[in-house]
Hints:
Blueprint: E1 23-34, E2 37-45, E3 54-55, E4 57-60, H1 67-79, E5 87-92, E6 103-113, E7 125-132, H2 143-160, H3 174-185, H4 191-200, E8 204-210, E9 220-224, H5 226-234
Parallel strand pairs: 1-6
Antiparallel strand pairs: 1-2, 1-4, 2-3, 2-7, 5-6, 8-9
Amino acid sequence: MKFPNSYYISDYKLPINDYFVFGLSVDCVIFGYQEGEIKVLLVQRGLEPFKGNWALIGDLVEPKQNLCDAANNVLEKLTGLKNIYLKQFFAFGSVDRHPLDRVVTVGYFSLVNSMDYKPIASSWAKSARWFNINDLPELAFDHHTILLKGIETLKDEVRHKPTGFELLPPKFTLLELQLLYEALLGYKFDKSNFRKKIIEMNILKPLKEAKENVSHRPAQLFEFDEKRYRALEKEGFSFEL
């Protein structure tokens, strides 16, 4: 709706049209797990501002586009990746975060097995690559701040939900599970305490199989019992590491 510039609403200090003049964008923090490392997917910008710099996957939201569609569309447009579950986690609205004008951005994050997703840069993205979160290039805009908030959100998510199991093969060892959570949370677990706690949760299904093609004593394999977890969740069970 267009209001005349003289139109004021109670307690507004400016004409109402002045409150409808800044931009909205989305930025996607796509975390990947591979060989014990947590990575983030970045694109290299092929246009100004920050041409040549690496950045999170994001762009402005079109006037008649909803946020979820915008996040999924920009992910596919810049990297070719699609059908990835994205979760909104925070909004970033510093007045000077974009050099061209006022732009508020909404962050989305996802956690995937990076071996399953091969990004191909397109549109204004010159390149798309997975980077270890501990070895990052300088990022455009305030994307380092957004990434840090995404890492904080990721750790909270995997500490309180069995999200990490999706990154493992269907059959895995307890050591593989421990290494995954150590990578996700950024610290080491005591081996015996981790195994005791995870087994006592009663959400793993032990298999009569062992890891094959290993040089050491083969370890027992397990499966995540999602049906059992959902039943326990309804009873008030809380996953926590």
